[in-house]
Amino acid sequence: MVARSLLYVETRARTYRHVWKASVFSNFLSPVLFLAAMGVGLGSLVDGGARSSGLDGVSYLNFLAPGLLAASAMLTATGEGSFPVVAGIKWTKTYHAALATPIGVPDLVVGHLAWIAVRLAMVCGAFATVAVAFGAMPPGRAAAAVVPAVLTGLAFAAATTAYAAALKHEMGLTLLFRFGVTPLFLFSGTFFPVEQLPGWMQPAAYVVPLWHGVEMARAMALGIPYEVSPLLSVAYLASWIVAGAGLSVFFFRRRLRP
Questions:
Q1: Which residues, including other chains, have CB under 8 Å from residue 232's CB and lie 6 or more apart?
Q2: What digits encode the pLDDT tens for the residues 216-241?
Q3: Buried b vs exposed e over 203-229: b needs ≥16 C-beta within 10 Å?
Q4: For residue 7, with 0-12 CB atoms within 10 Å meaning exposed, 13-18 middle and 19 or more buried, which class applies?
Q5: Residue 59's CB: how many other CB atoms inside 10 A?
Q6: N or C: which end of the chain has fewer CB atoms below 10 A?
Q7: Given this model, what pLDDT does residue 52 score?
Q8: Alpha carbons 220 and 61: distance in angstroms, whole number
Q9: CA 137 to CA 220: how far, in whole Å?
């Protein structure tokens, strides 16, 4: 399986080499804009009341950067696991072409997620580099924070791939981003501690994979204690990956059968 999955990764890499320049530019531009506008600009207003808002003296830029790192992984993963999947099944038929070779459905799903892992490493690596340049994280801690961010992205990639493979109409992807991804981006601890949310919303935030990624990345980047055991968070994210991959195989087989 590994060799056949790597063949699919090679196929995606060969396609990516035609667009990598624009992609790399956006990978660096996005964190520059976010950190400059939110971390530096808005942060200058937040820092005056940081202690009362629950930041415990940490500058808003330092607080925000690791959260945005994990959130960027989520956004990248959901993008790679949504429209390209629908396109491969419904429009371009690239998955049908792949299955005409010795590659099977499990190989296809594993290769798809492996390629997303490569993209996540690129995006998160670029974000961490920019964060270091802004002084938001030390280099060593920034490199460590990339790991939970990539794991978070894979959790969303697997779940989104399964969801996209099950869709009969692409309108469901618009609903996913509007009512799923955007609220998670805003209310999973990226921009402020979830303790600032109303009491009834906090338990919902804690069960979202993004919160676990944000919490681990922030603890690694700032050298602060974890709110929950990192082993528990890793196991939770891994369960999303395994479950999402399994469902993806199921729906791919149902949609791609001859």
A1: none
A2: 999 999 988 899 999 999 999 999 99
A3: eebeebbbbbbbbbbbbbbbeeeebee
A4: middle
A5: 18
A6: C
A7: 47
A8: 15
A9: 10
